[in-house]
Specification:
five-stranded antiparallel beta sheet, 3 domains, alpha+beta, 15% strand, 688 residues, 49% helix
Length: 688
């Protein structure tokens, strides 16, 4: 794709900047809320008390977000965030994903096997401490390693002093380092989730689209010492919900964005990474559908993973289309041209930061030189084969001094690693073997016959025979076996004859060599260049823009507002009338068939009740389950998706059509009261 001239780029940036000044852009850290923008545009004053209440009400749950909605530890999130736990709690006799679940008493609430909820307690700027650990002449890989060691030491010291989970968060690509402290809870119980036909009406066809008609909500309860947790703060449900044009806020945990990447990095994603991952996702989804077609139980087992992969594919397709959009690319070129011109115009900045872009370009070229090999040398990112690798790596890393360990294995991170490795969640041997065989077939195709990784994995067998051999002999499905391996340390790992552990032992040195090459030639230079750019961006722009998302607590704001779509306008709200109309328009063919429960009660419902709505709040993956609150901090909605136009928001935000899609508070109230006979939960959520 040709580059646009610098003059044109700068003109474009001026126009874009003027538009952005009026946009509700940004996932803001709680230490730097958008106070000026909110005051100037909406006349709203952010107070410390208002902000702290949001902070203590919001939780990170699994891979998404949630919030306390009662004084008794009740947490609201999405059904699709809860789906993994619903599936793990299900059996062949009780499918809590397909049929939903409601605990009518607290004694009926179901304890989740491996769900963790964390609440941000405090945050502290430790930039000076991290940078103080570096000699003035440290640079490149050496500087990166020193920063990582300093960060690990700070996190360990904090955790020992406070007993709180302590994480170091890098912002602005290295412009700032913050210490975040969390309180963690692992006794979490499922309280309510609607049936799949209500939560996911429209299925993958309607995913990342709008208008929408989904009851994508779920409720958990957090327990401490066997009793419901006294919520540190909570957001009472406001059944009237949000109105058209209202100012609303989304406090949540956006996962990641790539708005600060360079053109060189974006080009590799556009031309290489995205097309390859799309091919992989297509193959994996097709294979899982074949497995699900074997029978009802196989369909149940594969359902959550299949939904997750389908969601990932559609998300990745939207991001890919964004990078192929000439307008998006022109905006990224304009942003980089303006940034580089500022650095070039200042001799001191040029001397300090001029090498950042060449370092990153060098790293991307190195990545491309071995891309096929790097992507081919992988096993499933889930399942017992991955668990075996985790056990071998964990035991080896904890023998080292904390500062020398690989990321993920520092003292402050070990509790979470053990929690994952020792999960008592059910294992489905047939599905495990099927997925392992699929992975081995892909590996056999992608890697040359003489590749040592290929040889260690396949052991001169064909993929089907090797997968059967590995699964027939493993005992890792038993958490007690995994516990014994961790407790036994290196001796237990070395003595194990479990075939998955044996394979993981053989692969570990190969993977370490590959990771060392990546650190030296790709991740190291890219990180060093990225930290230079982060410092440069911080020197030029300061904190006038929000940093990229990091799966930490952020605040977005915006208006409830429709948008132009398909030559007409998409409304700010949908209703239950619209749900019925869409179902009838498709003659109730799956995935547009109404749930039996809704069909039975439909005539008794106020179908004019708002169901879903859109706002200009800036969100991304990880925001699923975030509360939507009004000026008073009342719950007026529940984020569950973005529209298709929002997917390019991974790289740029455009308020014209980028929208967050949420369940309306009125729909939550109607569903609990009139559809599911869960008035006791609605009453609890309205306590102040």
């Amino acid at each position: 794709m040709p580059r646009i001239p610098l003059r044109a780029a700068l003109v474009a940036l001026v126009l874009l900047t003027e538009a952005a000044a009026l946009a509700d852009e940004g996932m803001w850290t709680f230490d730097n809320p958008p106070t000026v923008q909110l005051q100037e545009r909406y006349g709203f004053t952010v107070t410390p008390q208002w902000l702290q209440r949001l902070q203590l009400s919001c939780v990170r749950i699994g891979g998404g977000s949630g919030s306390f909605v009662s004084p008794d530890g009740l947490v609201l999130t999405n059904a699709h965030v809860a789906q993994g736990q619903q599936q793990k709690l299900s059996t062949a006799e009780h499918d809590y994903v397909e049929d939903g679940f409601l605990a009518r008493t607290r004694a009926q609430e179901l304890k989740c096997p491996d769900l963790e909820i964390v609440i941000l307690q405090s945050y502290e700027d430790v930039t000076a401490q991290v940078l103080a650990a570096l000699p003035t002449d440290a640079s490149g890989l050496e500087a990166v390693a020193m920063r990582e060691a300093a960060s690990a030491a700070i996190a360990k010291s904090s955790q020992e002093a406070t007993g709180l989970q302590s994480d170091i968060v890098m912002l602005y690509g290295g412009g700032e380092y913050w210490l975040y402290r969390y309180r963690s809870y692992t006794d979490v119980r499922l309280v309510f989730a609607p049936e799949a036909k209500a939560a996911y009406f429209g299925g993958d066809d309607d995913n990342f689209t709008y208008p929408r008609h989904d009851l994508d909500l779920a409720l958990f309860r957090v327990y401490e010492n066997g009793r419901p947790l006294a919520s540190p703060a909570w957001l009472p449900l406001h059944p009237e919900g949000a109105g058209d044009g209202d100012l609303v806020f989304v406090p949540g945990h956006p996962g990641s964005t790539e708005r600060l990447l360079t053109l060189a990095q974006l080009q590799v994603r556009r031309d290489h990474t995205f097309p390859r991952s799309e091919k992989f996702l297509d193959e994996a989804i097709a294979a899982l559908r074949e497995y699900a077609a074997r029978g009802p139980e196989q369909s149940r087992q594969a359902g959550g993973l299949l939904n997750g992969l389908s969601n990932g594919r559609k998300s990745r397709q939207g991001e890919y289309r964004g990078l192929l959009d000439p307008a998006v690319w022109a905006r990224k070129e304009a942003e980089e041209a303006e940034f580089r011109s500022r650095i070039a115009a200042d001799a001191q900045l040029r001397e300090r930061f001029g090498q950042a872009w060449p370092l990153i370009e060098q790293a991307e070229q190195a990545r491309l030189s071995r891309l096929g090999e790097l992507e081919g040398r992988t096993l499933p990112r889930f399942g017992l084969a991955r668990t075996a690798q985790g056990l071998v790596r964990f035991v080896a890393e904890v023998q080292k001094p904390d500062g020398e360990r690989l990321e993920g294995y520092h003292e402050a991170q070990l509790r979470r690693q053990r929690f994952r490795l020792l999960s008592p969640a059910p294992v489905y041997p047939e599905l495990e073997q099927y997925l392992l065989e699929l992975s081995l077939r892909r590996l056999a195709t992608d890697l040359e016959p003489g590749d040592p990784f290929r040889s260690a994995v396949l052991a001169d067998r064909d993929p089907a025979a090797r997968a059967a051999e590995l699964m027939a002999g493993t005992r890792l499905a038993d958490p007690a076996v995994r516990q014994a391996l961790l407790d036994g340390g290196p001796a237990a790992i070395a003595a194990s004859t479990d075939p998955l552990i044996v394979m993981a032992r053989e692969l570990d040195p190969l993977l370490r060599n590959q990771e060392a090459w990546l650190r030296e030639h790709v991740d190291g230079p890219a990180r060093a260049g990225g930290e230079l750019l982060g410092a440069a961006r911080f020197a030029v722009y300061g904190k006038q823009a929000a940093p990229d998302a990091t799966f930490t607590l952020r605040l977005s704001y915006g208006q409830v507002k429709g948008y132009p779509s398909n030559g007409t306008r998409a409304p700010a709200f949908t209703t239950f009338h619209g749900l019925v109309d869409r179902a009838l328009s498709f003659r109730q063919q799956e995935p547009y068939d109404l749930s039996h429960r809704f069909g039975v009660r439909m005539r008794k419902l106020d179908l004019a009740t708002p169901l879903n709505f859109v706002s200009t709040c800036d969100i991304t993956g990880g925001n699923s389950g975030s509360p939507v609150v009004d000026r008073e901090g009342r719950l007026v909605g529940l984020v569950f998706d973005g529209n298709i136009e929002s997917l390019a928001g991974n790289f740029v935000y455009d308020e014209t059509a980028n929208r967050a899609v949420s369940v309306h508070a009125a729909a939550i109230a109607l569903a609990l009261r009139d559809i599911y006979d869960a008035g006791h939960l609605l009453q609890e959520m309205q306590r102040r």
